[in-house]
Amino acid sequence: MQNPTVAITGARGTLGQALIRRWHSRGAQLIALTHRSPTRGMVSLEVRDAQGQLIPLRQVDWETGQESALAPLLGEVDVLVLNHGLNQQGRRDREALHLALEVNALSHWRLLELFAQECSRRGGGGEVWLNTSEAEIQPALSPLYEISKRLIGQIFSLRALDLASADLRLRRLVLGPFRSELNPYGVMSADWVAGEILRQADWNCNLIIVTINPLTYGLMPLHALSRWAYNRCFTRATPGAGHGARGA
Predict the structure, then answer these.
(1) Is 145 among the catalytic positions?
(2) pTM of the predicted model, to two decimals?
C-alpha cells in the first residue's frame, strides 16, 4: 500500500507516537485520533521524527460513546489502528469496571463496525489493526484490564466471521509489556515494538505477536484457531451482517 492514510487511536501514548514515527518514515498521511478529556480539553499533539523535525499530523479529537461522529473521517482512511486503552491497576469498583469495558473493548468494537461500513460504501480496500495485548491469554496483574482485553479479543474473533466476505483486512496485535506511562516497568521499547509490528505486517501476517515471552508465540495461534472453530460451530451467519473483512 503506497502512501496510505493511517488513523491511529491512542496517538498521545508512547506506542501511538512510536507508530506515528514508523508510518511517517514510510510516507503515510497521518491522522492522530486523540481522546477528548473534560478537564484537559483540546491539546495539540506534536511528534518529532529521528531528526527532531515535527511530523505533519491531522489531529482529530473524539470521545468514547460518540464514535459515529468519526464516520466521515473514516471514509478517507486506508488503515485504522485501534490502539487506545487504559489500565486501572488495583481497582474493582463499578465505575472502574464500566470505564475499562467502554474504553478497552466497546469503543474498539464500535469503531471496527463503523470503519467496516465506510469501507463497504467505498468498495473495500481498508485494514483494521487491533491492539489486544498478551492479556487476552495471560495474567497482566490487572483484572479489569484482562477482562476488557479478553472481551474485545472475543468480539474481534466473532465479528471476523461475518466480516470475511469482502475487502476489509483485520490484523490482531498481541503485544508484550513495553515501557510507557501505563507500564514504566515494561522490558521492551515502544519504538522497537512499533518497528516489529510493521515488519510482521510486511510479512503479510494477520496475527502479529511482539513479546519476549516464547509461550505466547505458541499459545496465541492455538487460542485464536480454537476460538474461530468454536464460533464457527455454534453461531450462524445472518444475511447483511458483514461489511467485508479477511483476517484473524
Answers:
(1) yes
(2) 0.91
